[in-house]
Amino acid sequence: MNKEQALAIVKLHLTDHRFSHTLGVVETSVDLANRYGADPEKAELAAIFHDYAKFRDKEEMKKIVQEKLVDKSFLDYGDELLHAPCGAYFVKDEVGIDDQEILDAIYYHTTGRPNMTLLEKVIFLADYIEPGRRFNGVNEVRELAKVSLDNAIIQALENTIGFLMKRRHRVYPGTLATYNQLINTKKEK
Ligand SMILES: Nc1ncnc2c1ncn2[C@@H]1O[C@H](COP(=O)(O)OP(=O)(O)O)[C@@H](O)[C@H]1O
User: How much is the pLDDT for 189?
Assistant: First the structure.
């Protein structure tokens, strides 16, 4: 499947706004992959499909988690999280992508996980800093992304966790674990 074919598939599942966001994530993730030594072709494909399930029916996705996925914890921290793990499931099942590195990058793109692969880090960060993003603190993360993938992700996690806590939203424990692991890695150096 080439880039145009992949984009044509994903376009059918997204709004225009979400498709523009996806194009931003594609551009940014290829840049980050080239800068930090991840596979740019895998980054491109993972980025194209990262939000594949963004607009899928929530009840359908809850059923997928319950019946098909090993980790059920996504069910307890808000429906917005479902599109990432379920996206990985649908992309394999419906699009036929079976590269586990790409599927994992889609699976963990919203929450992160401890000890993320390079590709997972690239997609996680690209989703946060792509040029269409406008939220507070994003420019600081963009600057950090030029020099340190891990420091940029730590800052993105701090912003997201802080944002959620200020609004008394739930914070997915795996995201806190991701933050702790990256901080520990820094301390060990
Ligand atoms: N780690 C998390 N724990 C709990 N909720 C989260 C977490 N990360 C994101 N969310 C919630 O999910 C929503 C969608 O996240 P995300 O998919 O990253 O954003 P976007 O829709 O802007 O791409 C966020 O606005 C937030 O409410």
Answer: 66
**115-161 pLDDT tens trace:** 999 999 999 999 999 999 999 999 999 999 999 999 999 999 999 99
pTM, rounded to two decimals: 0.96
DSSP secondary structure letters along 15-60:
-HHHHHHHHHHHHHHHHHHHHHT--HHHHHHHHHHTTTTTTS-HHH
Domain range for residue 125?
3-188
Nearest CA to ligand 1 atom 18: 110
162 CA to centre of ligand 1 in angstroms: 12
Q: Could you give the number of structural domains in the chain? A: 1
User: How do residues 24-35 score in pLDDT, each as one tens digit?
Assistant: 999 999 999 999
How high is the ipTM of this complex? Answer: 0.91
Whose Cα sits closest to atom 23 in ligand 1?
127
- Taking a C-beta distance cutoff of 8 angstroms, is the pair 119, 47 a contact? no
Here the CATH number for the domain that contains residue 105 is: 1.10.3210.10
3-state secondary structure of 26: helix
Cβ of 170 below 6 Å from ligand 1? yes
Contact criterion met (CB below 8 Å) for 96 and 72: no
**Amino acid at residue number 158:** E
- Which residue has a Cα nearest atom 11 of ligand 1? 80
Which atom in ligand 1 lies closest to the alpha carbon of residue 160? 8
